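Hi W., the iron/sulfur cluster complex you wanted:
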Amino acid sequence: MSSPVTAAMLYDLIACPHRVAMDLFGDPGKRDPADPFVELLWKRGVLYEHQIMEGLRIPFLDLSSYSGDEKERQTLEAMHRGEPLIYSGRIQADGLLGEPDLLRKEGDGYSAGDIKSGAGMEGSGDLSKPKKHYAVQLALYMDILERKGMSVRRTGFIWDINGQEVVYDLAELYGRRNPRTLWQDYQEYLAEAQAVVTRRSETRAAFSSVCKLCHWYTACLSQLTAADDLTLIPELGRARRDAMIGSVATVRDFAASDPAQFLAGSKTIFPGIGSPMLEKLHARARLIAIGKDARPYFREPVALPTANLELFFDIEVDPFRDVCYLHGFVERHGGSNETERFVFFFAEEPTAEAEREAFADAWRYIQNSQPCTIYYYSKYERTIYRKLREKYPDVCSVEELEAMFDPAHAVDLYFDVVLKATEWPTPDFSIKTLAGYLGFAWRDVHPSGAASIEWFHRWIETGDPAIRQRILDYNEDDCRATRVLRDALSGLPVMTGSGNSSV
Ligand code: SF4
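Structure:
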């Protein structure tokens, strides 16, 4: 008998269908230990749920001490009695199993909800929309209730980190331009999950950013490498791989092919892949297929500013506490690495006062360093600085902040240089991957932004100076990696479409 489809499965399925299959049928011996950041996420979720329930001023039936069949029996009985609010129940029907945090009596039936330590919607203002991975879980609960004749309408709810109830109307159309509903999405994901649990469909690993925190990372990466999978080409991804795989299966085959064979008029034969994208992916395949002698290059020349003083800048943010806790800079004078110095501004506590002080100090340092060129990697630094400025408007004005990020002397090496104009023989363009490719090694054995957040949490809990130093070393190495990349970019050749090169 196959496993029931659970809400957690649907949540995972949205990130990666292969993870659902691996969790069910993969060799447990090949599983990586749980990533500490993932554990932190889980712990914070549980903690937040407890806080909410402990602070609730309305009566509720608590079934959290029960498990398995007994929990299910208690839940059913409670619903038949008409309990107004049930915490931590368990419901099941037709191969679907749900453990909603909340079941609330509404009219003649029940509505289901979850307590989440994240925002109830994604995006902000008019652009905010329901989170699909929350919606599918709520839809599964509502589906079970409907099959049991205990639902009145297809609506669930989230109690979110901001203390708000966010209603998910699963039957509502996305909009006039997109006349679909979350319920339709759910049914498609459910069908996919059912095919996975009953082994009617085979899933494939696909390299993506979510892999790095996944407990199957080592197993999948080795399988993808052995298979020379197309997702090892940057930006190709699962959907494009699945569109292409019937015609070309490996990086080497793709590299050896003539992309013209995949064209039909001005379009490609692959749904969702335009002709310019196919050309770009093909060039990447050719570069990767060269192997160890492959060298990165510029597709088009990009002039980088020059200045006597350069600042290589990186910040660390705790999204759970909504605190920017570290502003790190490696400064260099006259292009000489001998002059390098790490300067940092650290919020010693996760408080608004400490965050403001670190921001104000970093801002003063940047102002005192003018004129200089600032290098950072991704729009994140600018986005967070804009948020910090809004939070602490006494530190600097909008005009001053925008002037600081003027591209004439502040360069986002990721979006404005690497992504826009270069090619690398690597599976992605993260700073870790590119600096690692260039021979740079982080002092930490597990360097990542997610790990830094987890260390920050432990530093707050323990005050251990070794953890604080680990955070600083990691940030310093990120800044230095940005410098390594900046210097390497100066030496890359420019390869035009015709294959001509110039430096
Ligand atoms: S490592 Fe990546 S492909 Fe493999 S199961 Fe995890 S998310 Fe999916």
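Residues 16, 18-19, 22, 205-206, 210-211, 214, 216-217, 220 surround iron/sulfur cluster (CB under 6 Å).

W.
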